[in-house]
Predict the 3D structure of the following.
Amino acid sequence: MYNFDQIIDRSNTGSLKHDLYAGRDVLPMWVADMDFTSPPEVIEALESRARHGVFGYTIAREQLKAVIVERMAMLYNWQVEPDWIVFTAGLVSAINCICRALCRPGKEVIVFTPIYPPFLQIPSVNYLELVKIPMLNDNEYYTIDFDSFEKSLNPDSGLLMLSNPHNPSGRVHTRAELEKLAEICNRHNLPLISDEIHCELLLDGHKHIPVAMLDKETLNNTITLMAPSKTFNIAGLGCGFAIIANPKMRAKVTDIVHKLSSHPNIFGYEGAYAAFKYGEPWRKELLSYLTANRDLVNKELAGTKLKANSPEATYLHWIDCKGLKTGPGETPTTYFEKRGVGVSTGAAFDAPGYIRLNFGCPRAVLAEALKRMK
Ligand SMILES: Cc1ncc(COP(=O)(O)O)c(C=O)c1O
């Protein structure tokens, strides 16, 4: 019913993804947004709000909180209280605020690498120390190194930042992994910040488990971050939210969000409501389309020097390019740019030698990119 094959011209729209290669024959397959239009109901909601014509300071309406509460119950059977929801102007902004709210300067922020680049950058801008725990990599299947994680803990440990599903590997952490992780965090009184922005983009029937809902103790020790932005391709609308059951944590985070961050955009609220309320048929078709795209990447790269994993979630493929013969001073990213494909560089994720390929695009574009890469 929805036409994900349609190629949409994004030039002259200020697209971060496309403008990087403006005027060059390079297919942009890097930053994590998709080249699809959002669900029609989202577009209609934005048009309707624009027609109202008054765009003053805006807060989230109760109906938006209600639709999020309903969604948590529908998707995960998680009973969330409306008061637990704290809206933010996107999740990078939320993570910065959480670092400020929960850690005094000098505390340590733990991340599992490779990881979404802002996780590596946010601690230092908040006067915090970054502690990197490399994930275990079994033939491109990434898991948490629990022993190293626990050994790293000390009185200066401030918080753990988790990405689940994991960007860039596309792993969906299992219940057993989450239970083990939560148990360690709870035992050490280490707040767990679970960034679940990709949680509605699960492929192959994988099921997302919000770590906070495992048990009462974990709920009390965890901040969950979610947003409609990746799922419904509305990252430019700048709206995300934290779910914080612990009242003390919530008060601290809310205070910093108010002092440090801008309000989410009016259109962000409107887009989020329409997406969550009406976007399910679109999301279901999107997931089938992305699964077929993911399978195409697996098929085309099989047997080449590029070692691709098969992501369980998201529209991002994490590819080991260490087998590639690059020239002097050349990285895998510049190598592919020369061949007309713009990918994210693994070094930014703390993994030189890797690239991240965004396959959230019409299949014909993906097929052309894969042809150029081979
Ligand atoms: C794990 C993760 N968190 C956060 C973000 C960005 O969030 P926002 O655009 O809401 O700041 C991304 C975007 O790719 C992401 O992958």
